[in-house]
Amino acid sequence: MDYNAVAKKYDNYGNEAITDWAIAYPALLNEIAPFDNKMILDYGCGTGKVCRVIRDKGSKVIGVDISPKILTTTQNYDNSDVEYRCIKPAKIDFMKNDHVDNAISAFVFCNVQTREHLELNVREIYRVLKPGGKFSIVNANWEHCNGREFISYKFDSIPSLTPGQRVKLTLKASKNLIVENYFWGEKDYISVLEKAGFKNISVKRPLGVGNNIDWMGEDTCPLYLVVSAEK
Ligand SMILES: C[S@@+](CC[C@H](N)C(=O)[O-])C[C@H]1O[C@@H](n2cnc3c(N)ncnc32)[C@H](O)[C@@H]1O
To answer: Which of 164, 144, 59, 70 is nearest to 104 (CA)?
Structure first.
């Protein structure tokens, strides 16, 4: 899916995405805490919203993305101490080997069409991570949510999910955004990470907690999949 075409709408969604902010990003950031004096790569940073949270927590952060238009939305925000770079897929050419302490990638690999490209992306992230550095990925958990509707997402009903299959979901906000993605499940992420050389792979399926949000099932059904691994 080309985010150049929907940059403004995605920026709007990002500011309103209740469960991303309540469940997905806290779970992802929890994987890479603590933040003091670290260098962190946000691969597929989009509008830069997670970069700015990381910056505010005290780390240096570099956000990279393939969409020049979506990177222009970052100019609506305070970019001090955040470096944004436009890249070609799987090519963080400007960055030397073993450079970052951690890498994250939020809702990016669901945009990658083939396993071969998935492997190239993951291998490039492995290259720029320092030995012992942790890479954490978050995506929507299609395997548990196929056909269901939640506060911020409505998943189309797909008769049977196969790796790399085209899937569709609605990102719910004041202006809904329908996105086409590719399905990759838990096993796909694990095998691609292993193939790139990552070890100590862990999988988490965070749930919504607390009564301050009127959950639509996110407190019992794992809407997100968080996969982490070490170089
Ligand atoms: C759904 S948005 C997520 C943005 C951000 N990570 C967030 O959490 O809001 C997906 C982003 O991934 C970018 N993207 C897609 N394929 C990519 C690739 N192979 N390498 C880097 N970025 C990619 C898109 O341009 C888009 O900005």
So the answer is: 59
* Burial of 52 (C-beta count, 10 Å sphere; 0-12/13-18/19+): buried
Question: By residue range, what is the domain housing residue 196?
Answer: 7-143+185-230
Do the domain assignments include residue 217? yes
Residue with tokens 């202006």: 175
Q: The domain that contains 118 carries what CATH number? A: 3.40.50.150
CA quadruple 6, 8, 207, 196: dihedral sign: positive
Question: Tens digits of per-residue pLDDT, 187-215?
Answer: 999 999 999 999 999 999 999 999 899 99
Taking CA atoms only, the protein residue closest to ligand 1 atom 9 is: 46
Centre of ligand 1 to C-alpha 67, Å, is 8
Structure tokens at 32: 């890479």
Backbone angles phi, psi at 87, to 5 degrees: -130, 170
**What are the tens digits of pLDDT across the range 37-93?**
999 999 999 999 999 999 999 999 999 999 999 999 999 999 999 999 999 999 999
At 202, list the tokens. Answer: 């862990």
Ligand 1 pocket by C-beta < 6 Å: which residues? Answer: 3, 14, 43-46, 49-50, 65-67, 70, 89-90, 106-108, 111-112, 121
Read off the pLDDT band of 21 (50, 70, 90): very high
| Separation CA 176–CA 168 (nearest Å) | 13
* CA nearest ligand 1 atom 1, residue: 107
